[in-house]
Input
Amino acid sequence: MGQRDSKHDNGQTGVITRTAAKTKKPSLYKVLLLNDDYTPMEFVIVVLERIFNKGRDEATRIMLHVHQKGVGICGVYTFEIAETKVTQVMDFARKHQHPLQCTMEKE
Ligand code: TYC
Output
């Protein structure tokens, strides 16, 4: 940073340098599951297994955390992946007529 590529160094003489191309880390987003009184515990576990690739034990742990605390993190992803997960959860819940809610927030 703060250096110039020798090919952009208009007419200057000196040491030939080549700086690395600038890369930027993508922002990350937490995908959150919200508690409600009606969605069956087993359904939430299946959501965590199928959409968030959790094993049975981890899925159960996250579901119980949400059940007890009201909200919990299912995973952390780049924007497009997080958005897709939220849509998949909402579509799957609607299809089964459960009021399960899922949102995302910037980390
Ligand atoms: N509270 C629900 C019940 O008692 C279970 C539940 C857990 C629902 C997590 C939603 O995100 C949720 N059946």
In short: Helices lie at 41-50, 56-69, 79-95. Confidence is low (pLDDT under 50) at residues 1-12. The first strand starts at residue 28 and ends at 34.
